[in-house]
Amino acid sequence: MSTDPKITLKGVQKSFGSNHVLRGVDLRVDKGSSLVVIGGSGTGKSVLLKCILGIVQPDAGEILIDGATLKNREEFLSHFGMLFQGGALFDSLPVWHNVAFRLRQGKAKLSKADAQELAIEKLRRVGLKPETAFQFPAELSGGMQKRVGLARAIASEPSVIFFDEPTTGLDPIMAGVINELIREIVVDLGATAITITHDMSSVRAIADNVAMLHAGKVRWHGKVGEIDASGDAYVDQFINGRADGPIESVR
Amino acid sequence: MLAINYISEALASIGRSTMALFSAIGRLCIFAASAISHMFRAPFYPRELAAQLLKIGYFSLPVVGLTTLFTGGALALQIYAGGARFNAESVVPSIVAIGMVRELGPVLAGLMVAGRVGASIAAEIGTMKVTEQIDALTTLSTHPMKYLVVPRILAATIAMPLLVLIGNIIGVLGGFLVGVYRLDFNAAAYINNTVDFLEVGDVTSGLIKAAVFGFIVALMGTFSGFHSGRGAQGVGQATTNAVVAASVMILASNYILTELLFPS
């Protein structure tokens, strides 16, 4: 595995009014590695992802992709996939069109038949039957919607994938299936992945490296195998789910 | 001292409201300018435009048709009753036609479409925002302004004049039906009176108004949806804002357009 950084954050800050969400985040994600960002609710994990994507503009700091400031966001996004927390599937489009959405845009867009074929193949990849392709998102269960979201995220075989709370709201078995799929996909595609989650079983299944966000900064960053012996009271409290500890339960 | 506090608090409240109003107007102007600029830059989404034309234009026909039909009929009754005071009952066909084509057709269609389409656009885009579908579009290399806003604004601006044209015909027909079957006008004379008094300028002015009203409805719908707050309450508020703001703007712009198109 290469150790070149794919994504580097230097002193990234973001506030919404008087709410200082990110207070100087420094982070490095190596090419082809899977980083999981953990942290309590409201610690700015999703804002961090949106800053990297350019959906939210940071107030200060630098975000480097392949060692350089992002000049062409369109170019970056064309090799990017994301699984959103709620799936974020387009209600008005059938599942196959959701999955092949990107591939139906632009000059080199696929024909309807090719797009359907590709969508069915990607749906199979995430364990869904071909019939699902012709249903609408509202007709699917939460777990199926997550898997469709996953199929959409990988449809264009991206080199960078973000997963926002991939197992939230799923039963433990479905969560396990999604975790395995994510790990498989990341390994097969050789993609660089950032995952946000509270779910420690996801962390252990998906991560190469783990970063913990607390109070707007990276509190701890290390290999997943080292997390149980991090020696950091905040990390210990979080991974063991204890109410007592330095992290206040009322935030 | 207490009185001074109350006064300064009242002034601060007025100041805050004024600043919020100007800030919203500024955001709306920037949003409109951005939407217009994206209309002329690729990529374009003709399939989305066609879908919106169908949704905004075709599916609004029943509501616009019924509104103008009954309004045309009521107008004929009112003008007949009013005209009878001056022995001027014969003006019914011409005034129904001019009233419908110049004013009532575009304004009523605009208000009905604001209620039907403006609310729907705001709710749809607001829900898309709340459920991160707009962020998802961005991550799929699709500009939300081009994909969601431009087709809706273009479709409403194109569809409204067509809707109003059909609405005008139905409205005049409403007046004709009441005139002939209720007020005992001669059918041929009614039609002749309508055609003789109506000028091309009357029709085109109504269509120009319709295009402006269509633009306003879609602009307010998309703007409110994009600036929707979180949750069901936020989307509900965005929907209300879209309808109220579009309705007020239609009535205000109707006056301005009438001044410009028919200078006295």
Structure, explained:
The complex is a heterodimer of chains A (251) and B (264). Chain A has 251 residues and is α/β, with parallel strands linked by helices. Chain A has helices at residues 45-53, 73-77, 95-99, 112-125, 142-154, 172-189, 200-206, 233-240; strands at residues 5-16, 19-30, 34-38, 60-65, 68-69, 80-83, 160-164, 192-196, 209-214, 217-223. Chain A has a domain at 1-79 and 160-166 and 191-246: Rossmann fold, CATH 3.40.50.300. Chain A has 8 helices and 10 strands. In chain A, the strands form 2 sheets. Chain A has a 6-stranded mixed sheet with strand order 6-7-8-3-9-10. In chain A, strands 2-1-4-5 form a 4-stranded antiparallel sheet, covered by helices on one side. Chain A is globular and about 55 Å long. With 264 residues, chain B is mostly helical. Chain B folds into 2 domains: 1-41; 44-261, no CATH class. Helix content of chain B is 86%, strand content 0%. Chain B has helices at 2-39, 46-57, 61-84, 92-130, 133-139, 144-181, 187-197, 200-226, 231-261. In chain B, helix 1 (2-39) packs across helix 6 (144-181). Chain B starts with a helix and ends with a helix.
Structural class of chain B: mainly alpha
CATH architecture call of one domain in chain A: 3-Layer(aba) Sandwich
Question: Which CATH first-tier class of one domain in chain A would you pick?
Answer: Alpha Beta
> What is the number of beta strands of chain A?
10
By secondary-structure content and strand pairing, the structural class of chain A works out as: alpha/beta
General form of chain A = globular
The quaternary state of the protein chains shown equals heterodimer
Indicate the radius of gyration of chain B in whole angstroms: 22 Å
Number of DSSP strand runs of chain B: 0
Major beta-sheet overview of chain B: none
Globular, elongated, flat, extended or rod-shaped: what is the shape of chain B? globular
Average pLDDT figure of chain A: 89
Strand order of the largest sheet of chain A: 6-7-8-3-9-10
Average pLDDT of chain B, to the nearest integer? 94
